[in-house]
């Protein structure tokens, strides 16, 4: 939710922002409803003041009692109309995307993302490279067929040493973030509609959500939803900021419209696993913590020995709640290119306004800013498999994970 002061004081800026973001909201109609709300609010406040004044005279002035009675009737009608207008304003404003950072590049899709830097050396091989599907079968560590049999296509199993390596990766990433000041959580894997709305997944990503039948619940698409929702309606102490949270959860997304070579294997699936970074901070600090989360992501990938590139995400690839977003794309040898493994978004006050998350100021209260950033997902493990493969199909385990799994490579299964 944007600050409606922008609608009132910077209408042309908001209109240009909606144009760049291809947002069809009728801002002129929204402004008219906002004006009606403000006018009616003043009328209600005037009537309340008059009612309160006359109420003090009721004991000695019978006429005042009649006036107060009539004022109460008029006030109730206006308050009901104001409530309806405020709800209409809220619903209309909820479709307005966040304001963009000045340096967000133009572009219609991920092809418009701007590369900021490449880090690491892309591996070369003197043998035929296998993708993770082939490696998963050869090493007997990924089973998509039984995932489809038990659930449906888009679900899969990690098994054996693959499951051990996955658990080690997620545990290691959480431990590293805790070392960097993050508080570790284990969160629910379902959330109410208000939580999904408040974090911006509704209405903007409704087609990606698994709704639970006959329940005001949906499976989470990320622990961002439950970690940010944790502080809904809270008034935080300014001295407590920043609050840094992390959690590992399964994540569920319908991935509607996903198909083709880029969706093969387990790169784009209905259930995956993720370690998330969430930061609540003062507005003046959100740019700093956005960069800090990016530094954390890069550190993890560097420790794992994965080559990657960082991109500044363009407007067409940036979700409506985001102010600015970085993606990190790791090199996938089996795919032969860079592919997204983490995303990191500064959401400014968009989520906190929708969820009413404020902090105390000497002059009153303000809305916190939120940062949502991936640490690692299964995609990182896929990149490890494809980049660390050997001619015989075995895969070397990154050095930082070897103490956790107790082996330095995964060998092909014996038939």
Structural features, described:
39% of the residues lie in helices and 20% in strands. The chain is built from 13 helices and 17 strands. It has an 8-stranded mixed beta sheet with strand order 1-10-11-12-15-9-8-4. A 3-stranded mixed beta sheet has the order 7-13-14, with no helix packed on it. It has a two-stranded antiparallel sheet with strand order 2-3. α3 packs antiparallel against α4. The longest helix is centred in the first third of the chain and has 32 residues.
Question: How are the secondary structure elements laid out?
Answer:
Elements: H1 4-9, H2 11-20, H3 27-55, H4 62-93, E1 114-119, H5 132-139, E2 142-143, H6 144-150, E3 157-158, H7 160-179, E4 183-185, E5 190-191, H8 193-198, E6 218-219, H9 223-229, E7 235-236, E8 243-252, E9 271-281, H10 286-303, E10 308-312, E11 324-332, E12 337-346, H11 350-355, E13 358-361, E14 364-367, E15 369-377, H12 378-387, E16 395-396, H13 402-405, E17 409-410
Parallel strand pairs: 4-8, 7-13
Antiparallel strand pairs: 1-10, 2-3, 5-6, 8-9, 9-15, 10-11, 11-12, 12-15, 13-14, 16-17
Question: How would you concisely characterize the structure shown here?
Answer:
The chain is α+β, with helices and mostly antiparallel strands and 415 residues long. It is built from 13 helices and 17 strands. The mean pLDDT is 94.
Q: Number of helix segments? A: 13
Order of helices and strands: HHHHEHEHEHEEHEHEEEHEEEHEEEHEHE
Indicate the multimeric state.
single chain
Question: pLDDT average, as an integer?
Answer: 94
According to DSSP, the number of beta strands is 17
Classify the beta-strand content into a percent band: 15-25%
N- to C-terminal distance: 58 Å
Broad structural category: alpha+beta
The helical percent reads 25-40%
Strand adjacency order, main sheet: 1-10-11-12-15-9-8-4
Low-confidence stretches: none
* Rg measurement, Å: 26 Å
Report the sheet with the most strands, covering strand number, pairing sense and barrel closure: 8 strands, mixed
Q: Please tell me what the overall shape is.
A: elongated
